[in-house]
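Troubleshooting: if your tokenizer reports a length mismatch, compare against these two reference records.
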Amino acid sequence: MKVLVLNAGSSSLKFDLFDAEMDESRPERLLGKGEIARVSDMGEALQEAFDQMGPLLGGEPVEAVGHRVVHGGDLFHESVIIDAKVEKEIESLCSLAPLHNPHNLEAFRAARIHLPKATHVAVFDTAFHFTLPPQAYAYGLPYEYLIEKKIRRYGFHGISHRYVSWRFAQLHGKSRDDYRMITCHLGNGCSVCAVDRGKSIDTSMGFTPLEGLLMGTRSGDVDAGAIIYLITHEHVPPAELLGILNGKSGLKGLSGVSNDMRDVLRAAEESESESSQARAQLAVDIFCYRVRKYIGAYIAAMNGADVLIFTAGIGEHAPSIRARICAGLDNLGITIDERENQIESKEARRIGNSKIPVWIVPTEEELLIARDTLRCIRKAGI
């Protein structure tokens, strides 16, 4: 069976094509992947993707499509086959994720036209965090805001946190239920998750993906009073401010260089201007400090941890950032081996044999989406 995985953004469409069997004992094969950039029409982008995939299909039809959907709100706690009701419910959540869900829906609707006979499945980034307890997901706002307006922590990057926690346990021949894990997804978007015996019990992103860590272009934690001040005293329009918080803040806004950690690190070390170097260094320091704070908080939340895991672009490929994050955590039982930390590898590996071991586990979100797509089809008996 050919399974297509689609990940639609505001101006891009990523796709992965898998050859998978209904038999769970047989591993999936990645046939190919690609990305269409500068998308203005999702239908045209999808046609371009099919043109690229044509030789890989071997004349066989795509029978299943897994769609990454960022926000499932409190309606979806697992992946589901998309029917008219599910489509309408995902659309109702667009107000919670205006930068993501509309594009996810647009890709689904375009794919449905191209592949009307395929089974389409929604895999939600928020679903893994459905297990958060009330003390972790509720904000200190009036209670009716929680109940009537659904203002609460939802968490994101759940597909990645779910995959790496499963993969770590699999490598050790055990279940996620045997571990307390802290998983750090560090890329252009960043989040930390406390996974206690297989369940997400806290995570750094909140009502939107803005909360938590400093990110490539997102601000992370900001006092709500500062936002109100900018609106009421500096007269920054809310829509403009939202664009600043999402697209002009984080590493990019602080450093004045880039949202790419590699560029920021280079500027912090090599910039000819002392002020530019200082700005870049500040961005790096804040980034590492915030990750370190959340690690400490989640050790407290779980009364310990059995492993600290790094994943995603920065987490997998930036040894100096991993070293800076872990520096000063030795009293909590976390240290890394500098030699192991410097080794570049695409394989999961241990880089610290401390009381709380430190690991790098490459994430494979698309593979998990493909597997969830098959699970939904099996469950439905299609």
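Reference record two:
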Amino acid sequence: MLTAGPAKKVTIYVGRDHQYRGESVYMAILEFLFYHKVSGASATRGTAGFGADHHMHTDRILVLTENLPVKVEFIESAEKVEELLPKLREMVGTGLIEIQDTLVAKAAGLSTEGAPQATMPPLKREGKAKLMRIYVGENDKWHDKPLYKALLESMRANDLAGATVYQGILGYGANRRIHKEGMLQLSHDRPMMLSVVDTEERLRAFLPVLEDMVQQGLVVFSDVDIIKYSHNYQEGERRKEDRQ
């Protein structure tokens, strides 16, 4: 976290249409800084400018260009900036990086608006569980209802921990027909997968329900390791979880 005292101000100049791995360079830089826990960064767009190619870029109506200059700025400790520089040089390409000495008179505080008020560190639980995956077709029905929706409702009614439905874009099943989604050929029987993680006991207790609902499909079990982070536990609940 940035603190008051000597620091470095980094300014990066790139073109708006410059790309890095299929993404705008300035957006890629902001994401890189965010996920490397830089205290804060901002991007601003210029209305006119020129670079090393000496070509004028402007947003005037009569001379409109997409490659307007974009400036990304952040302030961090000298050690943090030194750590980030090699990757930033690679991302910027033909752009410009400027580094200035600066003094942080007051570091920005963390905003508490809308943030969870955690008074203690999150509880981390690890253990073993089972992953159940169910493969059915989008057109499969159960009592005139899409089977995947009925299965999801049934899982919730049977208090399974949680489930997610995935819609496939390409696949085939027991009938060996390829089902795919495309602009010229739209299949209305795409593969659907439901993914559930819970204890083996609870999942196997749900199998009779599955056997009644699924006429044609595939059910797969896998061993998984779970890591769960829980916030805002009451003290008594946390003590109970720690003893388990």
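Descriptive notes for reference record two:
- The chain has five helices and 16 strands.
- The chain has two domains: 5-104, 123-243.
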